[in-house]
Amino acid sequence: MDNKTILKDAENIRLIVFDVDGVLTDGKLILGENGNEYKSFYVRDGQGLVMLMKTECDVAVITARSSNIVAERMASLGIKHIHQGEQNKGEALVKLIDKLGITFSEVAYVGDDVIDLPAMNKVALPIAVADAHPEVKKLAKFITKNNGGQGAVREICELIMTAQNNFENQIKTYLSS
Question: Which of 19, 54, 58, 158 has its CA 20 to 30 A from that of 170?
Fold first, then answer.
């Protein structure tokens, strides 16, 4: 799909939903001897999310795994819609949209693996990270240049802010500080 069409689709997005492992992280799970789980989040992705949430666009995460690390990171970014332990992401997305009183035409979903397909199949703007599973890429209207956990989220945030004419204003807030 060409850039003009993607920007047009992104104009109406009021909610963007992200998978966690493989999208907000590089998908690697590091398990310590004591059973602790470690994940790596890209700081620039976090800054993109913070900037995006200052606009009219809301952010949520839906993930199949449950982790205190995810809860802590999302809370530190100010993300309020955190859905963990969701094996049926399509169903979780329907509940979230109903709760927020919006329509699927106002939603983007970012995924990397086949478990994300049911949610991606419902939204106006399905997005895949560069290193996503081929079936996920096949369904996506937009595929990032960057891999999950390595700038893909920032790329998506800037795309939506650009489409909604908010990116320059966000940059100006940092220039005037």
Answer: 19
Separation CA 174–CA 129 (nearest Å): 27
Contact 159, 142 (CB under 8 A): yes
d(CA 9, CA 106): 9
Q: How many CA atoms lie within 13 A of 93 on its CB side?
A: 31
Segment holding 71, helix H or strand E = helix 68-77
Residue ranges of the domains in the chain? 3-167
End-to-end CA distance of the chain: 37
Q: Is there a contact between 136 and 116 (Cβ–Cβ < 8 Å)? A: yes
Q: Which residues contact 72 (CB under 8 A, 6 or more apart)?
A: none
Encode the chain (177 residues) as per-residue pLDDT tens digits. 567 888 889 999 999 999 999 999 999 988 888 888 889 999 999 999 999 999 989 999 999 999 999 999 999 999 999 999 999 999 999 999 999 999 999 999 999 999 999 999 999 999 999 999 999 999 999 999 999 999 999 999 999 999 999 999 999 888 876
In angstroms, rounded to a whole number, what is the distance separating the alpha carbons of residues 129 and 24? 10
Residue 26's closest CA among 150, 132, 113, 111? 150
